[in-house]
């Protein structure tokens, strides 16, 4: 991350920049908020995954969908997680929030319950954000949840609640630290950098030593240093020595295991794992005035897009000061979870999918089965053009109702559908094909299609 405003970079611009740098296979402008702090560009020459990465990432890639939680002192201020910097709040004033910080008892269990209801298969929670406050018991600073208002180790509560529910545990850790006196100075003062690196390594070591098995380390805040300044390779070497099975992103400027496009959906190339992280409204940390909530349909369309290109989707909620989720977030996540109960087979453990979207639908695939996700229900019939394999049968996924269809060289035409949409917010059709479903997306298909000319007598 850098100091570019989250609100100053439009998602389309961020996606275009990332595409130019990364040489991506696929790119989608997601319906989302403007970008936050753009993720560091993935390494354009990223090597193919190693055998060890394939081993460690297997569960993560199968999980496909996770819940991100940004929770810190900024939730009391209620104007997002960058407020102390963006509003130039004096530290003497901002530190008073730590003394008033009082999460509701048992809130971590509530987070896990909501994550499970949403159909999420892993979680990532902030242990320390850029503000420098540690949501855990650390010996390296008094600016932590044990010494301040909560008098509790919030990371431990989260880890124990997630583990009890069988939910894989992800820890978010910001390298950038506005509170530490050497945090910014480290970019211009070598002695300050060495002190700050020792502090940074110490906090990461505590997180990966004191809480049992951690499944994901989600670095963030790669400014103001680059890989050499962060000693990123040595950092990762320590991480894997402490947690041999962990997966790690690349936001400390080392390659890491997976890329992290932010507020956009950009598929990585060369088989590299990737995860799109996105906010459910327009804020990472709690903003009391932010009511720009994505609809369940928009949320699902983003998840489907990631699944199509073999990426993960990490959706974020910023809890209120007491740790509880805003009611709209709970409602949206629950509706998405209800949909996944009946349609999850079309999202999880799916294969790369070549067919692209018509105006009202999207696709995922498993083997020779093509899932057609109709988000704008057109009524009694739907069509897709250019499918290059024979369709054997069509049915509604949720109800298993068989559907009539015809197929010619140009389209598959599915008829006899209910006029009213049968499944909210998206209805999924299942097309069983004779071979891997592939779609002709070339101009040649249009050139070969019969046309009627002007003044033709019928």
Automatic annotation (TrEMBL):
Its job: Alpha-L-fucosidase is responsible for hydrolyzing the alpha-1,6-linked fucose joined to the reducing-end N-acetylglucosamine of the carbohydrate moieties of glycoproteins.
GO molecular function: alpha-L-fucosidase activity
Name recorded for this polypeptide: alpha-L-fucosidase
Domain Glycoside hydrolase family 29 N-terminal: 53-345
Keyword Membrane (UniProt): no
Similarity comment: family membership: Belongs to the glycosyl hydrolase 29 family.
GO terms, biological process: fucose metabolic process; glycoside catabolic process
Taxonomic source organism: Granulicella mallensis
């Amino acid at each position: 991350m850098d100091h570019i405003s989250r609100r100053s970079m439009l998602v389309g611009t961020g996606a275009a920049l990332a595409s130019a740098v990364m040489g991506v296979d696929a790119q989608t402008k997601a319906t989302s908020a403007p970008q936050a702090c753009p993720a560091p560009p993935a390494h354009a020459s990223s090597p193919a995954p190693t055998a060890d990465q394939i081993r460690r990432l297997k569960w993560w890639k199968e999980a496909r969908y996770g819940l991100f939680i940004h929770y810190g002192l900024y939730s009391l201020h209620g104007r997002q997680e960058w407020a102390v910097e963006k509003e130039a709040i004096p530290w003497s004033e901002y530190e008073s929030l730590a003394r008033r910080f009082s999460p509701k008892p048992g809130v971590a269990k509530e987070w896990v319950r909501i994550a499970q209801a949403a159909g999420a298969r892993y979680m990532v929670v902030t242990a320390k954000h850029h503000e420098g406050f540690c949501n855990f018991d650390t010996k390296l600073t008094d600016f932590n949840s044990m010494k301040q208002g909560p008098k509790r180790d919030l990371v431990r509560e989260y880890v124990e609640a997630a583990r009890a529910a069988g939910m894989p545990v992800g820890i978010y850790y910001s390298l950038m630290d506005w509170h530490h006196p050497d945090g910014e100075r480290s970019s211009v003062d070598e002695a300050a950098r060495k002190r700050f690196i020792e502090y940074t390594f110490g906090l990461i070591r505590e997180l990966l030593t004191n809480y049992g098995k951690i499944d994901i380390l989600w670095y963030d805040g790669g400014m103001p240093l680059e890989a050499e300044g962060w000693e990123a390779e040595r950092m990762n070497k320590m991480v894997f020595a402490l947690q041999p099975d962990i997966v790690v992103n690349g936001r400390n400027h080392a390659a890491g295991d997976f890329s992290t496009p932010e507020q956009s959906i950009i598929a990585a190339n060369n088989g590299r794992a990737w995860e799109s992280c996105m906010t459910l409204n327009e804020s990472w940390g709690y903003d009391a005035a932010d009511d720009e909530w994505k609809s369940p349909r928009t949320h699902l369309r983003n998840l489907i897009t990631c699944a199509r290109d073999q990426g993960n989707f990490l959706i974020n909620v910023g809890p209120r000061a007491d740790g509880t989720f805003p009611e709209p977030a709970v409602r949206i996540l629950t509706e998405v979870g209800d949909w996944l109960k009946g349609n999850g087979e079309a999202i999880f453990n799916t294969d790369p999918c070549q067919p692209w979207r018509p105006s009202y639908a999207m696709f995922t695939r498993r083997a020779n089965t093509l899932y057609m996700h109709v988000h704008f229900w057109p009524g009694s019939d739907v069509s897709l053009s250019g499918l290059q394999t024979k369709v054997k049968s069509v049915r509604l996924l949720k109800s298993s109702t068989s559907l009539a269809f015809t197929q010619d060289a140009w389209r598959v035409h599915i008829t006899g559908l209910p006029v009213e949409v049968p499944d909210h917010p998206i209805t999924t059709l299942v097309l069983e094909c004779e071979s891997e479903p592939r779609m002709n997306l070339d101009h040649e298909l249009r050139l070969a299609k019969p046309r009627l000319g002007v003044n033709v007598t019928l």
